[in-house]
Structures are given as C-alpha cells and as structure tokens.
Amino acid sequence: MTDKNVGQEACPELKDLKALADFFAKKEVTPDFAEKIEAYLVTANKVNEGLKEYTENSEKLREISDHFNRLQNRIKGVESDRKFKVSVAQEKFYLESLKPNLEKLSSKLAEFAPKFADDENLKANFEGIELILKAFENNLISLGLHVKEEKGEE
C-alpha cells in the first residue's frame, strides 16, 4: 500500500478531487463540463469543511489540554501544601507531646531499674515494659514521627 492509497482511503473526497484535477489537466471540454466543475467545487468544499473541523477540534483539544494542565498544577500545589501542613503538625505533635513523654517514661524506667533487679518477677515485668517502649519508639520511627537520638560514648 502506498502513501497515495492511504490518503485516498482516509479521505475519499481527495480521490474525487484528483480525478477532477486529472480531467482539467487534459484541457478537454466536454458536455458534462459544468457538472464536473460542480463536482469539483462540492469536493473542494468538503475538503475545506474537513480542514475547518480539524482546526476547530485541534483548538478544542488544546483548550482541554490547557485546562487539564492547569488542574494538574493546582492539584500538585494543594498536595504540596497538604504535605507541608501534615509535616508541621507531625513535628509539633512529636515535639510537644510524644518526645517529652517518651523521655519522661525512659528516665522513670532508668530510675527504677535498680529497684527491680532483686525480684525476678518485677525484673521480668520491667523488661517487658522496656520492650514495649522500644517497640513503640520503633513504630514511631517507621512512621517518621520519631528520631532516635544517638548517645555518644563518654
């Protein structure tokens, strides 16, 4: 299949137009000359209407695409703003509530650890509480709400 055939199948009016152009190229005047000119004009009008419709559709597509891009940029802005606000709220919650209470609980556990060392049952309970606290801290770390501070060797 040649490019010429592809164009003719895509727009049958062009085939008619080519036949008319070939007819006029021969410079033969026949009795059906007026009829052929009318057919040429009808075909040319169809091609022009198709071109006009294509141009209008291209413009509509451009408008829709521009609108879509504006909406997409607006959504990205809203998402960015939301992520920032969530981050600020998480940090505030961590600094004002979680961190002080975790530090307080850790210091209380460290304070009472020597008292539980003599009794095996109390020591086991104490170690269970320490494990729960450590698991809670690890969960907060995985959620991005907590940062475990590295203690330097002294």
Beta-strand segment tally: 0
**Which outline best applies?**
rod-shaped
Global mean pLDDT: 80
* Secondary-structure-derived class: mainly alpha
| Radius of gyration based on Cα positions | 40 Å
Put simply, the count of helices is: 4
Secondary-structure element series: HHHH
Low-confidence stretches: 1-8
Q: Tell me the strand percentage band.
A: under 5%
Could you give a short account of the major beta sheet? Answer: none
End-to-end separation in angstroms reads 84 Å
Helix content: over 70%
Task: State the domain count.
Answer: 1
Coiled coil: 44-81
Keywords: Coiled coil
What features would you describe in this structure?
This protein is mostly helical and 154 residues long. The chain has one domain (3-143). It has 4 helices and no strands. The chain has helices at residues 3-10, 12-25, 33-116, 120-143. Helix 2 packs antiparallel against helix 3. The longest helix is centred in the middle third of the chain and has 84 residues, at 33-116. The chain is rod-shaped. Mean pLDDT is 80; it is low at 1-8. Residues 44-81 form a coiled coil. Keywords: Coiled coil.
